[in-house]
Automatic annotation (TrEMBL):
Belongs to the glycosyl hydrolase family 6. PROSITE patterns: GLYCOSYL_HYDROL_F6_1. SUPFAM superfamilies: Glycosyl hydrolases family 6, cellulases. The active site is at 113. Its EC number is 3.2.1.-. Residues 1-27 form the signal peptide. This is Glucanase. The lineage of its organism: Bacteria, Bacillati, Actinomycetota, Actinomycetes, Pseudonocardiales. Gene3D superfamilies: 1, 4-beta cellobiohydrolase. PANTHER family: 1,4-BETA-D-GLUCAN CELLOBIOHYDROLASE C-RELATED, PTHR34876. Keywords: Carbohydrate metabolism, Cellulose degradation, Disulfide bond, Glycosidase, Hydrolase, Polysaccharide degradation, Signal. The keyword Cell wall biogenesis/degradation does not apply. Coiled coil: none annotated. It is an enzyme of class 3 (hydrolase).
Length: 323
């Protein structure tokens, strides 16, 4: 994903965000934590597949199995997922059968990653609406956690002004789809990280993108900031939501790679470490492994030549050993 540089919002956009008061649908109060018994471990995650295919790569295979592939984390869905309704239904059904709570990421917004290492996304606003509607249909009444469109809100200002409003409209549509179609899902709209966008601006953007319709917002996705820093930022965002819009929201923190905190780098940096495995509580509503540990951020950083989203045992071992 693109660098976590601070992006200044345009004055006109900020004013429009403050004025947006379009009503949004409210999600049913189905608590997925009460309907499941722990988080779902994806048996087909990239680390799990690597472990199964490299049984003789000792001791790395044992270390990656113990530290990563047997831990609960998210599965990402995007334009690579084929029939997204079928893919989401299959994943959430497998979790439901074993009474576990799956974590999903919707990552298909048009102009994804602003042309960076994870560029792509749906080809048009209408295509995205169809895709995210099918995503929500795939979950239906099954319990789930969904992270909506990492970076899409924080990267708003990389788009022309007209396209910024289109993106906000699409995110509001996505929020409404989960509110209306997935009553036992807690959906969280991505809200960047602790050093990217000022908390008052992020609160305005989240409100404009429809966070009031869903459970809350997510922080630190695919980044490295400590849980303490992320929690402080989330509380600051909520203080601004309360002051400006008279509500607050729960938030979750991606802890998959934040064990050593951030050194300011964002793309495959060395010296990072696994963080607290997925759990309820811990400062935020939940701490979740959203980014798959060992999956590359792109052809950059300490490990070159590995496309974004591709698993690297070298990256995984670096996170295990903190090197």
């Amino acid at each position: 994903m693109l660098a976590v540089m601070r992006i200044k919002s345009l004055g006109l956009l900020a004013a429009s965000l403050l004025l947006m008061t379009v009503p949004v649908a409210q999600a049913a109060d189905g608590n997925p934590l009460e309907k499941t018994n722990g988080f779902y471990v994806d048996p087909d995650s990239n680390p799990a597949v690597w472990v199964s295919e490299h049984p003789n790569d000792k001791p790395r295979v044992d270390m990656i199995r113990s530290a990563i592939s047997t831990k609960a984390g998210a599965r990402w869905f995007g334009n690579w997922s084929g029939d997204v309704r079928a893919a989401v239904d299959s994943f959430t059904w497998a979790a439901d059968v074993v009474d576990k709570l799956p974590i999903l990421v919707a990552y298909n917004i048009p102009g994804r990653d602003c042309g960076g290492h994870s560029s792509g996304g749906a080809g048009s606003p209408d295509a995205y609406k169809a895709w995210i509607s099918q995503f929500a249909d795939g979950i239906g009444g099954k319990p789930a956690i969904v992270i909506i469109e990492p970076d899409a809100v924080a990267q708003l200002a990389c788009l022309p002004l007209k396209e910024q409003q289109t993106r906000l409209d699409l995110l509001r549509y996505a929020a409404d789809q989960f509110a209306q179609k997935a009553p036992n899902t807690w959906a969280y709209l991505d809200g960047g990280n602790a050093t990217w966008i000022a908390a008052d601006i992020m609160a305005e953007r989240l409100n404009a993108a429809g966070v009031s319709a869903i459970r809350g917002f997510a922080l630190n996705v695919s980044n490295f900031h400590t849980t303490a820093a992320s929690t402080a930022y989330g509380n600051e965002v909520n203080a601004n939501l309360s002051r400006k819009f008279s509500y607050t929201k729960p938030f979750v923190v991606d802890t998959s790679r934040n064990g050593n905190g951030s050194d300011g780098e964002w793309c495959n940096p060395s010296g990072r470490k696994l963080g607290t495995p997925s759990q309820v509580g811990g400062g935020a509503e939940m701490l979740l492994w959203v980014k798959v540990p060992g999956d590359s951020d792109g052809d950059c950083g300490a490990i070159r030549g590995i496309p974004a989203g591709t698993f690297s045992p070298d990256l995984a071992m670096g996170l295990i050993e903190g090197k």
